[in-house]
Amino acid sequence: MVKKVAMIATNGYEDLELHYPRIRLIEAGYEVDLIGLSEDIIKGKHGYPIKPDLAMDDANPNDYIGLVLPGGASNPDHLRRYDSVLNFVKSINESKKLIAAICHAGWVLISARILEGKAATSYFAIKDDMINAGVLFKDEAVVIDDNLITSRSPEDLPAFMKAIIEYLKKIK
Length: 172
Fold this sequence. Notes:
33% of the residues lie in helices and 22% in strands. By secondary structure, it is α/β, with parallel strands linked by helices. It is globular.
């Protein structure tokens, strides 16, 4: 049985924070569905285009063992405006499945109201937002708190992906 991981993104995603995790997960044997707000091609902040596998309205959180959210300031800021995205994140969290967020993606978790009392990290520019959402903020490459794995920036991607893959390998 192939284990599936969801990624949610829209225009303005940080290219490395989407493509590096996606490729590493595929290499590790996971199926990865890129979920967009629609199935229209999206472009990263550096212009790299990718076509989502499915639209948010067609995505079912029960189909996935986890979720990876890339950053890029405009990507998470836009995603957090959609109830369908926030409800997907909440459902994944309520099922105690993996939620991994890097850089500005913490904004989506803030808007989904799943961070209070959690240890986490993010890009330094949203540190105050994270703290105001009730996070025990840690300035570390990777912070793991139960099913939540967070990271700061593209420089931390190797440690972020190591933590994600180790977490997923423990799932039966």
